[in-house]
Structure formats: C-alpha cells, structure tokens
Amino acid sequence: MAQLRVDFFADPELIILSEVLLLNTALHAIELRKNKVGDDGVEALARAVGRGNLPIKTVHLESNQLSSMGATLLVRGLMEGGCPLEELVIADNAITVSAEAVRRRKADEEREAELRKLAAVSRATPASEWARAQLHVRAVVADRTRQGAPRTALSQADFAALLALPKELREDRWEQLGGLYGPPPPAETAAAAAAASAAAARGARGAENAAVAAELGFELVASPVPNAAERALRELGVGAASPPSEGRPGGVPAAARSPRGMHGAAAHRNAPSPSAVPSQHTAVSGLTPMAEAHARAPEPLLPSPKQLARLAPDQLQLLWAMVTAAPSPEEQAVYRTDAVQAVCTLLGTAGNTLSYLELSSVGLCGVDGADMPLLGCTYTGEAVAL
After folding, report:
1. Same domain? 170 vs 310
2. What is the mean pLDDT of the chain?
3. Does a structural domain hold residue 316?
4. Which of 58, 236, 284, 366 has the maximum number of C-beta atoms within 10 A of its C-beta?
C-alpha cells in the first residue's frame, strides 16, 4: 500500500509525477490538499488514473485552484480507470466557474501580491508610489463593480485634455475634476455638506458660549477628547451645543462660578456678539469660511490629485485603462455545471463504492423557474456523508 501526500505542489510537479503513476500499482490514496494544483496538473493526473487501473480509494484535492474543467476531467478519469473510489473531496475549489475565469483570477491574485510587495517599503520610492496607485485603483474599481456603480464620471475628452496640460498644472486640474473618478455622487456631496453645516452650527454655538464666558471673566478651552458621558449625549443629540470647559471641575455653570455671583445672569442677556470677543484667550470649534468650503467637498478617492500629478503620462494611461475597462466575464459570474453533472454521473454509476463526498465552498447554486442559476450562494457547511 502506498499513500501520496505532498504539500506545496503545483501543476509542473504534478504533471511529472503523473507520468510515474503509470508504473505504480499500489497507490490507493492521493492527498494534495492546500496546494496550487490547477487544471493542467489535474488533467495529467486524470489521464494517468484513467489509463493505469490504479486501486485508488481516496482523493483529497481541497483548497487548490481547480475550475469546472479540471474537476470534470478528474471525475471522468476516476470513472474510466475503474478506481474503487470511496472518498472524494474537492471542497474549496471553483468547480462551478469556467477555466478562463479561474485563470484570470489566479493571474490577478499573483499581480495583487506583487504590487503589495512593491508597496510595502519603509521609504517611499517612485516604484512604491506607482504600486500604491495601482492598488488604490484596483480597490476602487472592485468596490464600484460590486455596487453596480459607474467607475468614473469623467469622459475620455476630460482625460485627454488633462494629459495635454503641462505637468505643473495637472494637480490643480485633477483637483477640479475630482480625481480619477470624477466628482462624487450627489448623495455623498449632500452628506458632506450636511456634516459641514452641522460643524458650522456647533462652532457658532461654541463662539456664543465663549463670548458669555469672556464677559463673566472666564476662559473656555475646547477639549480635544470628549469624555464618555459627553460622547453619549452627543450621539443622542443632547447637550452637544458647546465644548466642555477644562477650567473648573464638576460641570458648574459659568455664571455660578463668576466672582460677580448672580449678576452673571444679567451679563448673559447683555453678552456681546461673538465677533466682539477677544480671540487670543478663547478656543472654539467654529470653521472659517475657507475651512467650511473645504469641508463641504468630500476628499477625492485615492490616488489623490497630488499623487496623480506625480505620475508619468504612460502611467496615467494605464490607470485610466483600468478604470474604463469593461467588466470581465468573471465579474459577470460565469457559472458552469459540468463538474457537478460529472459527480452525479459517478454517483449514478452501477457498482460505485463512493461513500464520502465533500463539496463545501465550491459555489454551488440552485436554479430558478427558467433553469438559470441562482448566483451568489456558497455552501460552506460540513461535509456530506452519503
């Protein structure tokens, strides 16, 4: 009896090993879980198993890189070879996805890992900045694709006109355009404007309270970190009118602490306007007109206009191509049932000895009334014992 159980296997190693299997008559178990075996390696293995008449009882290929094609070839090879199969585990493989989509996914993952390696440096370099820019664009494109949102609001003419500008003028133009993706959707702009308006209102209330405190002979200093009680009140919309005072403990009103005692109440009614309060001893949370205008506009998504301005035209062209590229078939959920049908054929074969089948996390889907797959579901439960 022999058992093959190897880690860190990929297609080249399995192709070579499959040639040797034709000379073997004792192999009864193949365990290649958590490797990098893809369709090419499994095709060679299926060919060897189909020809060799091996007494294979157990096949474990979970957590590899099989597609629908690879899993189908494997099951057919096991049937053609007449293997007395008892256990078949191909969980955590994309056996319901086309081979082309799996290859694209594999190449994309390898490219992502390469970019992350280039970007993870302690000191920024042109190469690391370029890698970060690509990672940012890839993340935004993936997020907007999942949401079904447009990837950019810019036109090809906008982008071409920007490239025609001298490099020193591009940052300002990127700022005007809203970055590589254009201005944010109206909902985001409205949310930012509402936040800026609320901040301005808090600033006005803080200035008024500071004016009252100054008239009564006190100084209010905005606390950079509110305490737990104040945070809870702010979340409820209660007591958030002014920043807390660090000058006195216990939260005693300013008028009660005034050296003039109850006369402070009259001072509140006759308090000067906020503009009349000296600013050298008072810190409030109000926004200047310039800061308020800046707060109303959401920050552009990365890469920032400054980062984009540092890139060369050919690099910008590549980023633009990433943003404007049509969704790939993988993003449109390419679904295949060949492997599942092959497994069903195996189960229905007279005299089959299969007693344990695991298809967890392979993207199995149901079908609707028109026999179209119900995409988006993944079975991740325990193995199914037959």
Report:
1. yes
2. 75
3. yes
4. 284
332-357 per-position pLDDT tens digit: 557 788 898 899 999 998 888 999 99
The pLDDT score that the predictor gives to residue 383 is: 32
pTM recorded for the entire structure? 0.55
pLDDT digits (tens, 9 = 90+) for 3-34: 566 667 889 999 998 988 888 778 889 999 88
Do 270 and 195 lie in a common domain? yes
- d(CA 210, CA 280) in angstroms, rounded, equals 12
C-alpha angle 264-266-267 in degrees, rounded to nearest 5: 60
The region that residue 37 occupies, defined by phi over 0 for left and psi between -120 and 50 for alpha, beta otherwise, is beta
Please give the share of the chain, as a percent, with pLDDT higher than 90: 37
Which residues constitute the domain of residue 327?
100-175+303-331
Question: Are 168 and 314 part of one and the same domain?
Answer: yes
Does residue 22 contact residue 54 with C-beta atoms inside 8 Å?
no
User: How many structural domains comprise the chain?
Assistant: 3
DSSP letter at 88 equals E
Using CA atoms, how far apart are residues 284 and 120, in angstroms rounded to an integer? 40
Regions in the chain scoring below 50 on pLDDT: 1, 189, 223-225, 228-230, 232-233, 236-286, 290-291, 293-296, 331, 377-386
Q: Which residues contact 115 (CB under 8 A, 6 or more apart)?
A: 131, 134, 135, 138
